[in-house]
Specification:
Blueprint (H helix, E strand, L loop, with lengths): L2 E4 L10 H13 L13 E3 L5 E3 H11 L17 E3 L6 E3 L9 E2 L1 H31 L17 E4 L9 E3 L4 E3 L1 H5 L8 E3 H109 L4 H22 L18 H8 L22
Antiparallel strand pairs: 1-7, 2-3, 2-6, 4-5, 8-9, 8-10
Helix pairs in contact: 5-6
């Protein structure tokens, strides 16, 4: 179905009354409950799912916490600061980021951008039509008795000139005029009044918007909950990691201490044996030197040719040699080199350390089957 757009002969032109009403209803939904103006970005969503301008939330927080200014903070507060939602009086507890820690409602901000874009387009349209009417000499005054419905642009049928589009073909799903129903290609189709179809689809669209907004609020709440879960999992993981590292460090410290003790025992045994052996080496070295000197003395005495002197010196040397021979067999060093008692079996301990594992529990479950409130 083809139809043309024709301005009425009198009255102010612009977007349809239904569209204007829709924009008014949308504007009411975008009003901040504090400043009673359209939201100014950034828009924050409270845990109770109500929305505020972040500036308004900051003003409420300042009013609720008189000590906030004295702390020298700028739009942030200390952890645990709180204020009440102006819509439902739900108590909002802020973290260390203050109002900047509140979640931004990107959905409302996107709708806000689209609303402002539509408003801007509507103002441009009105300005353009005003210039057209001024150049054509059209009187811009609107009679008092003209109803809002008469201010809409008239959609005229292109097949039947001067026939307004006032019915809707249910079979072809297109607007048409009465002449097309009576004489035209829609005469065998089911039709309905355009106003009733308009009202019904407008209501359906409004309900769909409300359903979508409610669904998005639910998704936003789920995202907030999952972000909180992420923070909880990170904190639990950090705490468990520190506990595990501390216990393993304790085991390593025990091993280091035992290592020092056992190595000290080996060193003590080694030093004792070395001391005894080195003492024997010193004594035997002294005896060896004395024996060498005695051999040299015996050789000189053996060269003596005078019998009386030889006999006298030989008796003394023979006695010394006898004493040296007896003392050389009197003490023999007994060396015990067996150190097998210093060997320890660490195989079982090493296997036990290699098999250190976490006990079976929630960590063995399928992540897809874990509840939303499970953590490490």
């Amino acid at each position: 179905m083809n139809f043309a757009l024709r301005p009425p002969s009198s009255g102010r032109s612009g977007p349809g009354g239904g569209r204007g009403a829709t924009m008014e209803n949308l504007e009411k939904q975008l009003l901040c409950p504090v400043c009673l103006e359209v939201f100014s970005k950034p828009v924050v969503i409270l845990p109770c799912q109500h929305n505020l301008c972040r500036k308004c939330a900051s003003d409420i927080f300042q009013a609720a916490d008189p000590l906030w200014r004295s702390r020298g903070s700028s739009s942030t507060g200390s952890s645990g600061a709180r204020f009440r939602c102006p819509s439902c009086r739900h108590e909002v507890v802020l973290d260390r980021h203050g109002v900047y820690g509140l979640q931004r409602n990107l959905l409302v901000e996107n709708i806000l951008d689209m609303f402002r874009q539509q408003e801007s387009s509507r103002r441009v349209f009105h300005a353009h039509k005003a210039r057209q009417r001024f150049t054509q000499g059209v009187v811009m005054e609107l009679p008092v008795n003209i109803k809002p419905e008469q201010q809409q642009q008239k959609l005229l049928c292109e097949e039947h000139e001067e026939e307004k589009i006032n019915i809707y073909c249910l079979s072809c799903e297109t607007p048409t005029c009465s002449m097309c129903k009576v004489f035209g290609k829609h005469k065998d189709c089911d039709v309905a009044p355009l106003s009733s179809v308009y009202a019904r689809q407008k209501a359906d669209l409004s309900d769909s918007i409300a359903t979508l907004v409610a669904s998005n609020d639910h998704v936003q709440a789920a995202i907030t909950q999952m972000e909180e879960m992420c923070r909880t999992v990170e904190e639990n993981g950090r705490r468990r990691r520190e506990q595990l590292a501390g216990r393993l460090d304790g085991l390593a410290a025990i091993l280091d201490e035992r290592k020092r003790e056992l190595v000290g025992l080996i060193a003590t045994e080694r030093d004792g044996k070395l001391g005894r052996v080195r003492g024997l080496v010193g004594r035997y070295s002294d005896r060896l030197e004395a024996a060498v000197a005695l051999v040299e003395s015996a050789i000189r005495s053996n060269e003596e040719t005078r019998a009386p002197l030889f006999i006298q010196s030989a008796n003394v040397i023979l006695e010394k040699i006898a004493v040296a021979a007896r003392s050389s067999h009197a003490e023999r060093p007994e060396l015990h080199e067996d150190v097998s008692h210093f060997v320890i079996d660490t195989d079982d301990l090493a296997d036990m350390l290699r098999n250190i594992r976490f006990p079976p529990g929630d960590g063995d479950e399928d992540p897809d089957e874990c509840g939303e409130d499970s953590d490490l």
